[in-house]
Specification:
This protein has 137 residues and is an alpha+beta fold. The chain has a single domain (2-131), classed as Cyclic Phosphodiesterase, Chain: A (Alpha-Beta Complex). Helix content is 32%, strand content 32%. It has four helices and seven strands. It has helices at residues 25-38, 65-75, 112-116, 118-131; strands spanning 2-11, 16-23, 56-60, 83-86, 89-94, 97-103, 108-111. The strands form two sheets. The protein has a four-stranded antiparallel β-sheet with strand order 3-2-1-4. It is globular.
């Protein structure tokens, strides 16, 4: 699944700064189906169950009002990035902490420790390079 970074933005109500993400149709459908499946097993935020979803990657949260204003002023002056990317992992978060993460490259469910592990991330990248035929020999 692929996505494109298309800019920066904010969620005003909780002072979150994020990178705007434009998903491909596979990623959009995957997120929708995942939310439908998960709501049978756990509580989801109301916006998580909506078909239309604001795809994003959080950059900063819990900013003071002053810092939030400074960061907003800065990001709105920046040139909008346009980068294509491939989704490696999907993260399930509970109480703002990683609960589990699925690694599509390793085809493995990761616990919190593994998801935060630099060693496991390097293994993911190395395996991806091998799959793409870009490994150094």
């Amino acid at each position: 699944m692929q996505f494109q970074v298309v800019g920066f933005n904010t969620f005003e109500d909780n002072r979150v700064v994020y990178i705007e993400v434009e998903p491909d149709t596979k990623l959009d459908y995957f997120r929708w189906r995942l939310s439908q499946t998960l709501q049978e097993y756990c509580f989801l935020q109301p916006n998580d169950t909506q078909r239309k979803f604001s795809f994003h990657a959080t950059v900063a949260m819990k900013l003071t009002p002053k810092k939030f204003k400074q960061v907003k002023k800065y990001i709105y002056k920046k040139t909008k990035p346009r980068n294509k990317n491939i989704l490696f992992r999907v993260t399930l978060i509970k109480n703002q902490k990683i609960l589990r993460e699925y690694d599509f490259v390793l085809k493995k469910m990761l616990n919190r420790r593994e998801a935060k592990s630099r060693t496991v991330l390097i293994r993911t990248f190395n395996e991806f390079m091998k799959i793409m035929g870009l490994n150094k020999t």
